[in-house]
Amino acid sequence: MIKRIIFGLILCVAIAACSSSDDGNNGNNGDGFNRTELLTNLADNIIIPAFQDLGVKLSAMDVARANFVNSQTQTNLDALSAAWLEAYSVWQHVELFNIGEAEDVNTTSDDRGFVRFFNIYPVSETEIDGYAASGTYDLTSVLVDQGFPAFDYLIHGIATGDATALDKFTTHTNASGYMTYMTDVMSRMLSLNNQILNDWQNTYKDQFISATENGLNGSFNKIANDFIFAYEKGFRAQKVGTPAGVFSAGQTFPDRVEAFYKGDVSKTLALESLTALENFFVGRAYNGSTTGSSLRTYLQFLDSDDIVTAIQSQFTAVRTSINGLGNNFSNEIENNNTQVLTTYEVMQAMVPLIKVDMRQALDFAIDFQDSDGD
Amino acid sequence: MKKLALSLFVIGSLFTSCSSDDDGGNPNQVVAPATYEFLRNGQTTISFTGQTQRIEMAEEIISALKNTSFTEAQIDGMFNNTGDNFSDAELNAATTKKVRSKTAASFDFFGGSANISNLADFDGWIAEQVNDVYPEWGNAASAGNAGFINEGVAQDGSTRYVNAKGLELNQAFNKSLIGAMMADQMLNNYISEGLLSGFTEANDNGTLVEGKNYTDMEHDWDEAYGYLFGTASSVSNPLLDIGEGLGGSDSFLNKYLDRVNDDPDFNGIAQDIYDALKLGRAAIVEKNYDVRNEQAEIIREKVSQVIGVRGVYYLQSAKNAFLNGDNGSAFHDLSEGYGFIYSLQFTRQPNSNSAYFTKAEVDAFLADLLEGNGFWDIASDTTILDTISTAIANRFGNFTVAQAAP
């Protein structure tokens, strides 16, 4: 009798051990980590507050723009420049979130999503001068000469034949054309951000949080890829690698830095972008310092503390290295490119940590590939 | 008692059936074809023209590095495929392929973009060869001076051209590229679980690359194959070029697989690598990724071993030549060894994300070899050659210095 009971117990244990391997989908990946909690933290505490703040800063920028349209003084232009920089800094915190409506607003075949309309640089001066002259353009099309870089040229750049940036809006033959173009670019930025924010608040948030499945369409898979892509492309390559000649056999492009026309803020923006990436990794709330469920806690949950340590010390090394550069990356590339390349190498050293070690530990699929294949 | 025995039997079989679910798949479920030949609807699914072209480009580059009529700009242009400097027009503007962008650029080690400090090494060798060695082509080399040196105790053998430290820069470039491009792309990129992860769904669904007869994952695996066998006389049976007196099909990884395979201590290694590539590719067709990954680890171990063995081989060969007073041959061996040591940073320890030696460790070995007057100094004290040989063999653990030595 006792033997039978023992046998029965063993059988139960065996069956239980067997079935526990396929425990269905309770907001996790079968690894026990609660992905729902992670996605909720990202949406509620980071993504939506960042888009909200961008909306606030874009509105302030629009007020400064209106003041300048009413009175084209250098003081008003400076105020607009200051508002532009504030909004541009907040933009660094949303650039990563190329998902949902932000991804869908771009119907071209590139993989940049809304970034295409907010932060592709350099812009073409010739094109923008042409739009000011002709008044013919469609910002809702594939046009990339819009967003923050277009503003940078408009309010800081000097058009051919002019002496100052202000001349564009006062003495230039096409002054009213420049003004209209600027206003249209502003409207486009405001409306795109509203569209994306509304979608998050009204429909996409629930969809984002509930898509806990594995595979390329799962939210975790997408957002983890967005993080890697933002680090590799928007941060490492665009801000430093491309202008410093890393991808062009050493030929440098000092005019391809972020905020080229303003000049002295490329370091500020790079550091802001770094902060945004680091905050995302540790799940730090946009408004405040509380950290929550994130890539970091996911790694810790899976006992990959060594990877967390490596990534966090690399973030620190990147910050130290960028801090060692001057404010104006364009000048740095022209006069001190060896140090810029050293910074690039420190930035690059993060890529295998997040793209290989972290990816392997969290077991998600990379959904973008280097285009220079074959 | 019978009941108990029966019960135990039942329990036993229960556990067996339970554990067999998660044992990483049964390799027997995938059967490799006799040769590397894969078809879909009667047409081949194999393609690696990009790899063949890059090997051909690399061949032209190492030739140019021994031809003083080339300028630095021309050789730089060949490395980056700009300016139409290849003699084979197919390799010029007709193709978008470049050697440079695939140098130290694997997914696993570098996130897929070329590492600039490694590129600086390759760029530096080109520049030094053209600017410092070419002008001394007609002068005898000596400690601290670039020039030519003849092999042979009587200095009647092949003429080699070395820099001020005795290093042949064309050899440094050639052998280092074996690690930085061929091995790195093969071991750390195209068979990487991380790189291939993005193609799992497409491969599971049989989704073909637009306009092609292969899935992305199939193609990636073929590209790994191409870096080793891309110039073989037979795509499906590249081992026809490997064997005593055959010499392989190129001047890079294939050639040295042939050399190592010719050593009785390592005979069969070419077959092992070929078999693993073949079974891994069949596993992709069968959507069995555990078997695929197991083959990847075999390929990593064996191809890495080729580089480790060859590094030790040349160090030991150089030691013997120095003992005979044949500096010319010793410098030539050391120059080849230098490149194989450089290549160690791109090897891959199986079941890890690491090379057998880090870049820092490799740089330290290379600095030791070039200290002071470089190879000229080693001629009078060869201790360093044994020190490095032993360090390499110990780290690999799957061969001894004696086995690797000539």
What's the layout of helices and strands?
The complex is a heterodimer of chains A (374) and B (406).
Chain A: H1 2-19, H2 35-70, H3 74-94, H4 101-104, H5 115-118, H6 125-134, H7 147-156, H8 175-210, H9 219-241, H10 266-282, H11 295-301, H12 305-323, H13 329-335, H14 337-348, H15 350-362
Helix pairs in contact in A: 2-3, 2-8, 3-7, 3-10, 6-8, 7-8, 9-10, 9-14, 9-15, 10-12, 12-14, 12-15, 13-14
Chain B: H1 2-19, E1 39-40, E2 43-44, H2 49-64, H3 72-80, H4 107-110, H5 116-133, E3 147-150, E4 159-162, H6 169-190, H7 193-197, H8 200-204, H9 216-229, H10 253-262, H11 269-285, H12 289-323, H13 327-343, H14 359-370, H15 375-378, H16 383-396, H17 401-404
Antiparallel strand pairs in B: 1-2, 3-4
Helix pairs in contact in B: 2-9, 5-6, 6-9, 6-12, 6-13, 9-11, 10-12, 11-12, 12-13, 12-16, 13-14
Count of discrete structural domains of chain B? 1
| Number of E-type strands of chain A | 0
What class do helices, strands and sheet pairing of chain B give?
A: mainly alpha
Number of helices of chain B: 17
Protein name (chain A): Iron-regulated protein A
Subcellular location (chain A): Cell envelope
Pfam families (chain A): Peptidase_M75 (PF09375)
Keywords (chain A): Signal
